[in-house]
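Hi Prof. W.,

I finally got the Phosphoglycerate kinase prediction working! I wasn't sure whether to trim anything, so I left the full sequence exactly as given:
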Amino acid sequence: MGILLIKINNLQIPTLDDVDFVGKKLLVRIDINSPVDPKTGELLDDSRIKAYIPTIKELLEKGNSIVLISHQGRPGDSDFISLNEHANLLNKYLGFNVEFVEDVMGPYAREKIKNMNKGEIILLDNVRFVSEELIEAPPSQHAKSYLVRRLYPLFEGYVNDAFAASHRSQASLVGFPMLLKSSVGRVMEREVSALAKVFNPEDFPKVFVLGGGKVLDSLRIIENLVKRRLADRILTGGLIAELFALAKGLDLGRENMQILEKKGLISLVPRARRILLSGGPIEIPVDFKVEKEGGKIVEEPSNKVSGIIKDIGSTTMEIYSSFIKDAKLIVMRGPMGVIEDERFRDGSKKILENALESQGYLIIGGGHMISMLGGTAEVNSSKVHVSTGGGALLLFLAGETLPALEALDISSKEAIKK
Ligand SMILES: Nc1ncnc2c1ncn2[C@@H]1O[C@H](COP(=O)(O)OP(=O)(O)O)[C@@H](O)[C@H]1O
Ligand SMILES: O=C(OP(=O)(O)O)[C@H](O)COP(=O)(O)O
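And this is what came out:
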């Protein structure tokens, strides 16, 4: 092994400078999971796709042939789609042909991989089409999965560049490093080194703005932040705000309750209440923008909600903006509302504008909020870190060990046996 290992939380993780990936056939786990328009099925943002171009180019320039593997969405959701469109975008940004293989581990995919020539590149289809991928299990168990056993013998090395998925202990993230020589790619390397530099737990006040739809992840994140006293204020939006509103005893009306129930979120109310009782600095919206029967859009105070909640209201925007203005460090993940609908983008837009104008350092993550940046070219990189991660970013900042990084650490220590 080489010498440029990244050291975090006592883990030692090899980078591409530590491994001899030259002229090899490599499996490269990326995370190009992107927001999707539920009406048209089109990708709403391609920043995660663009982020991988340097890693891919570097590996190809070193004479490797590479097979890209990624997930997209979750079964049952409207963004659970094939990676066909992603392949077209990779083609466009790389400037040469990425072959899209509409299969993950079947005979067709394996044959294609076996017959690859040096310098060729394949994108496999959505790895979550294989049900084993969705199981959260330790690396040793995933190393025995069909997915890993079918694919690993075809490769000479594994690169994990999927920072945004590194909080998942899933087969394509933790299984392969148990059997193949492994390293992180440039995206993962950039994220962990940049975040270690810009996130100073001593900075004060630290404001976290957490919205979006992944409520279970957000609860886990908030529990960590509160336990380690890392946040001075946690401003909630999206579905997580609704959960904390219920935990504070607010009545959100029959329709919102039905929506939350359908998503299985009501059972999380006691957990949210425990966070509040332990003194968690949680702020909830004082008003919401709601859609009433017949499609009328109005703002309603949080204690008198009757329509379906779709965004934060304008008084909340003002209050949240004042907290953001005074912050030394702002961490933002997940939109304030249903941003796929133009009528409910204002809350996220206003909060983001204020964060970009503030004197504080801004760390922003999660595909949906990043899509609101409209291309990161204009962002001042000395004041803003645009992360490819959302949940992974927050858990990393909150001090959790991420399973995919842990697997690479185990892999590097076991390398001698490979
Ligand atoms: N009040 C709300 N009700 C339902 N869905 C919401 C609400 N607010 C935000 N969302 C949804 O949350 C989703 C984004 O959440 P998430 O995937 O957690 O964010 P990110 O991709 O940025 O990490 C969007 O599809 C958005 O429509
Ligand atoms: O988009 C992702 O996470 P994020 O919404 O927290 O940024 C990752 O691709 C992980 O996806 P998952 O949360 O369905 O495991």
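The longest helix spans residues 186-198. Does that look reasonable to you?

Thanks,
D.
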